[in-house]
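Priority: medium. Attachment 1 of 2:
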């Protein structure tokens, strides 16, 4: 089965791109919940594998401190992906961030999205999101 790879980016309210990754999906039809979950799981997995000095992700881990270079975790312990996904999904439902799919705002977690190689999903944070 072919994988559909899309661009996922963090953007400011003014449209400036802050960060971008490629994310692959086994199906070309997914939900907004699956996109958020895959994005958060991917960034937590990357952090846990590499354990860099700074963390860059949709949800700020609870023991992270904002610095001029990004988020610095007080201890380099693995981050719980399931907890981070839960916080992200809850934040989406409370309008903690917007998800734009090809510049159209996603309304619900259950909304179906047809992915193509040209699909761009933008996450626009409104407030800092703190997770586990």
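Attachment 2 of 2:
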């Amino acid at each position: 089965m072919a994988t559909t790879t899309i661009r996922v980016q963090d953007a400011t309210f003014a449209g400036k791109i802050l960060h971008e990754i490629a994310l692959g999906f086994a199906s070309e039809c997914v939900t907004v919940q699956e996109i958020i979950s895959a994005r958060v799981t991917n960034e937590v997995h990357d952090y846990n594998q590499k354990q860099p000095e700074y963390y860059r992700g949709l949800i700020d881990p609870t023991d992270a401190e904002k610095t001029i270079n990004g988020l610095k975790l007080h201890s380099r312990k693995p981050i719980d992906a399931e907890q981070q996904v839960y916080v992200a999904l809850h934040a989406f439902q409370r309008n903690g961030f917007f998800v734009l799919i090809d510049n159209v705002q996603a309304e619900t977690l259950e909304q179906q999205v047809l992915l193509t190689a040209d699909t761009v999903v933008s996450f626009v944070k409104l407030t800092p999101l703190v997770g586990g």
